[in-house]
Design goal:
single chain; Chloramphenicol Acetyltransferase; 7 strands; 7 helices; 40% helix; disordered N terminus; 191 residues
Length: 191
């Protein structure tokens, strides 16, 4: 998508040859491939930090041993955005609520109704969890991702969820997460 934008191509006019009609580089006109090749940055391999190595190993193990379910849907968030705007009207910028906090809070409240979606999968067995610990993907400034858990998320208000998200983001980027925050997610939400 970025390569097409960089060369001014309207991807809405292209037919994708990838899975489910995804547009691949080979679907773009040849002049785009030449442009991409010329502008591709050079990369040098960097040794992984111990935290990044542990995250990589855990995510690989997770993909290999745990059934993954993906749900994608379009949701009209107009009312949610109006509610957030109203809530944020009198708040200082650093105290404002963001949409991810509202969505995580809603998911945390709904999960107890669907115990098969909330738990751990160990040795081929699903163990539903009484607690809702929502893993949230955080992008690290030096590159990579980490997925710390918002522990007991179903007991938090939207404001408390936002405070935890801010804290986890800051500590993730400083490499200061607790082991329980890395290892105890019972479900993961990504944006």
């Amino acid at each position: 998508h970025m390569q097409a934008q960089a060369t001014g191509i309207d991807i809405g006019q292209l037919k994708g040859s990838g899975p489910q009609g995804a547009i691949l580089l080979r679907d773009l006109p040849s002049r785009t491939e030449q442009h991409v090749e010329k502008t591709r940055p050079t990369e040098t391999a960097q040794p992984a930090s111990s935290m990044r190595q542990a995250i990589s190993e855990a995510m690989t193990r997770s993909k290999q041993t745990i059934p993954h379910y993906y749900l994608t849907m379009d949701i009209d968030l107009t009312n949610a955005q109006h509610w957030l705007a109203e809530q944020n009207q009198s708040r200082e910028p650093e105290q404002r609520l963001l949409l991810p906090a509202l969505l995580i809070s809603a998911i945390a409240r709904l999960l107890p109704r669907y115990p098969a979606l909330n738990g751990t999968f160990i040795n081929g067995r699903l163990t539903p969890s009484d607690t809702v610990n929502i893993g949230n993907t955080i992008s690290l400034r030096q590159g990579g991702l980490v997925v710390p858990a918002i522990l007991n998320a179903n007991t938090l208000t939207v404001d408390e969820t936002m405070a935890v998200l801010r804290d986890l983001t800051e500590r993730s980027r400083r490499g200061r997460l607790r082991s329980s925050e890395i290892s105890e997610a019972t479900i993961t939400v990504t944006s």
